[in-house]
């Protein structure tokens, strides 16, 4: 038995030593941005840090807890000179981080007063393969939208730098959210991308659909009254917010009809139930003919 135990234990100890060494490297918080509904953005820098789109890191803040590590998806793009995470204040640890960063105070916080943090990572995810396809479907549920912030930023940087060498030609983006609280910070990014795409006369590059799934009768009535306005009353985007859940069978058939003979990447960050639905649709809408349309499903569950 000991022969079978020693090998895995040795590998585990090596992994712990590497993680401890990486956690001791200096990390500097360069900026803290407070978004609505108690969501904060931490922009950080670390020597030698290299990332790809959609990856995640583990973060420890000794001022809050000397032992706790928490995973956060990176919301910055590899092309930016910093890396960032968005933290929703929903528990004791996040509340402690919120207070440690001085976000509970009205006055301006000096950079040297910001808490020390340790970062381990980045670690890879399925989202890294998004640039391997000409057409992709990105599906985020609630806070599962965070890896796609990194993807959309990086796509835009690559598109501006050298659009001719960018293999990715079309993005279908879906965001499913129960309430409007999570819309705020991500809607700002979509508004920026929407405006810049229109300036370059390529508004069709990104098609997005935002679904508010936890709606009630009052919200629905408000939605109907303002549906004819130029911009959506919730997100401020030209694309109107939709109520309810998407009809995935219709969505897949529509996209398959627009891109015959293509390999279409389907990327999800969301719950297991939604993953099962999208996986079944990817299989049923893929053709047996190798020259036909094929949906390739990739997922991250939380």
TrEMBL record:
<keyword id="KW-0560">Oxidoreductase</keyword>
<dbReference type="GO" id="GO:0042554">
    <property type="term" value="P:superoxide anion generation"/>
</dbReference>
<keyword id="KW-1003">Cell membrane</keyword>
<dbReference type="InterPro" id="IPR017927">
    <property type="entry name" value="FAD-bd_FR_type"/>
</dbReference>
<keyword id="KW-0851">Voltage-gated channel</keyword>
<dbReference type="InterPro" id="IPR017938">
    <property type="entry name" value="Riboflavin_synthase-like_b-brl"/>
</dbReference>
<dbReference type="GO" id="GO:0034220">
    <property type="term" value="P:monoatomic ion transmembrane transport"/>
</dbReference>
<dbReference type="GO" id="GO:0043020">
    <property type="term" value="C:NADPH oxidase complex"/>
</dbReference>
<keyword id="KW-0249">Electron transport</keyword>
<feature type="domain" description="FAD-binding FR-type">
    <location>
        <begin position="19"/>
        <end position="129"/>
    </location>
</feature>
<keyword id="KW-0597">Phosphoprotein</keyword>
<keyword id="KW-0832">Ubl conjugation</keyword>
<dbReference type="InterPro" id="IPR039261">
    <property type="entry name" value="FNR_nucleotide-bd"/>
</dbReference>
<dbReference type="Pfam" id="PF08022">
    <property type="entry name" value="FAD_binding_8"/>
</dbReference>
<dbReference type="GO" id="GO:0034702">
    <property type="term" value="C:monoatomic ion channel complex"/>
</dbReference>
<dbReference type="InterPro" id="IPR013121">
    <property type="entry name" value="Fe_red_NAD-bd_6"/>
</dbReference>
<keyword id="KW-1133">Transmembrane helix</keyword>
<dbReference type="GO" id="GO:0006952">
    <property type="term" value="P:defense response"/>
</dbReference>
<keyword id="KW-0408">Iron</keyword>
<keyword id="KW-0274">FAD</keyword>
<keyword id="KW-0349">Heme</keyword>
<keyword id="KW-0472">Membrane</keyword>
<dbReference type="Pfam" id="PF08030">
    <property type="entry name" value="NAD_binding_6"/>
</dbReference>
<dbReference type="InterPro" id="IPR000778">
    <property type="entry name" value="Cyt_b245_heavy_chain"/>
</dbReference>
<keyword id="KW-0285">Flavoprotein</keyword>
<keyword id="KW-0521">NADP</keyword>
<keyword id="KW-0813">Transport</keyword>
<dbReference type="GO" id="GO:0046872">
    <property type="term" value="F:metal ion binding"/>
</dbReference>
<comment type="function">
    <text>Catalytic subunit of the phagocyte NADPH oxidase complex that mediates the transfer of electrons from cytosolic NADPH to O2 to produce the superoxide anion (O2(-)). In the activated complex, electrons are first transferred from NADPH to flavin adenine dinucleotide (FAD) and subsequently transferred via two heme molecules to molecular oxygen, producing superoxide through an outer-sphere reaction.</text>
</comment>
<keyword id="KW-0812">Transmembrane</keyword>
<keyword id="KW-0325">Glycoprotein</keyword>
<keyword id="KW-0479">Metal-binding</keyword>
<dbReference type="InterPro" id="IPR050369">
    <property type="entry name" value="RBOH/FRE"/>
</dbReference>
<keyword id="KW-0406">Ion transport</keyword>
<dbReference type="InterPro" id="IPR013112">
    <property type="entry name" value="FAD-bd_8"/>
</dbReference>
<keyword id="KW-0407">Ion channel</keyword>
<dbReference type="GO" id="GO:0016175">
    <property type="term" value="F:superoxide-generating NAD(P)H oxidase activity"/>
</dbReference>
<protein>
    <recommendedName>
        <fullName>NADPH oxidase 2</fullName>
    </recommendedName>
</protein>
<keyword id="KW-1017">Isopeptide bond</keyword>
